[in-house]
Amino acid sequence: MKKKQNPSLLWQKALQRDHLALARIITLIEKEDTAILHLLEKEWANFGKSHIVGITGPPGSGKSTLVNQLIPIFRKEELSLAILAVDPTSPISGGAFLGDRLRMGRIGTDPNIFMRSFAHGGQEGGLAHGMEYVCLLLDLAGFDLILIETVGVGQIEMDIVTLAHTLVLLLSPGQGDIIQVHKAGIMEIADVYVINKADLEGAKTLAEEIRFMLNLKSSKNKWHPPVLEVSAQKGWGINELFQAIEKHKSFLEKEGLWSQKTQEIIAKNLERTLQNRWMTVLKKEEIQKEIQSISLKICRKEMEMEEA
């Protein structure tokens, strides 16, 4: 039988950026291990040092290739990096499809890069369960940057908006991208727009459409989102994207918005924690019996909903 490691010892190793310990704790977070969650919940006051960057966009826009190109640039700047890649769930195994992650295999030898794939599992909003706690853990472990790549499932995910300091929206020329942008309301919240596959026909037109829509949008925000044309496959424009991400971080710090965003992340986690606890209470047998009893009385017209 495999010996269960002491949570406190595992915790200390993770804070020293031990990759194996980090991976084990993340697995425990996914399993909602109460001991680990309790340790993490006491640390929210220390959250807010890592720069959380979200990479999102429609399927096929080249998110994984773009992330792969960004990695050496971040490392050249001596930034430690945690990559969280949310994948579709395999219908057979229930685990994450690795897909393009296999192309990132070479990063495993760099101690300053941690990578973890997560199974999406149909989670509404596009992020895996417990992602806030994972980001808290990696923040406490001292990573300079946490890069989250969301799953592409036919719509642009929105949970990342509440979790990332900087949101990068990746689009590529092709019918339907611009429609998806409008449907998701992403025009209101993306910080950097990237038109990938810029060497293909229609890329410049798409970039012009985005710039036109941004000019029409009225905003009190002093940040003016750049629209960058890149080719992740060929490595064009990746340095400009890195500079835009760093510029947005500086903007947040200068305008006093960094702490505000950190508070929003904590508030969202608190909201979800309270919702989960309330649902746990509702699922208790005695509560369920009471609900059934009241609903029966309502059906028999012995009680009105307001009285319940």
What is the domain total for the residues?
Answer: 3
Order of helices and strands: HHHEHEEHEHEHEHEHHH
Considering the protein shown, what is the CATH homologous superfamily of the largest domain? Answer: P-loop containing nucleotide triphosphate hydrolases
Q: What is the general shape?
A: globular
The number of helical elements comes to 11
The stretches of 5 or more residues where confidence is low (pLDDT under 50) are 89-100, 122-126
Query: Number of DSSP strands?
Result: 7
Structural overview:
The protein is an alpha/beta fold. The chain has 3 domains: 1-42, no CATH class; 47-255, P-loop containing nucleotide triphosphate hydrolases (Rossmann fold), CATH 3.40.50; 272-307, no CATH class. It is built from 11 helices and 7 strands. It has helices at 7-15, 19-30, 34-41, 63-76, 131-140, 159-163, 177-184, 203-216, 238-254, 257-282, 285-299; strands spanning 51-56, 81-87, 113-119, 145-149, 166-171, 192-195, 227-229. The chain has a 7-stranded parallel beta sheet with strand order 3-2-4-1-5-6-7, sandwiched between helices. β6 (192-195), α8 (203-216) and β7 form a beta-alpha-beta unit. α1 (7-15) packs across α2. It is globular, with a radius of gyration of 22 Å.
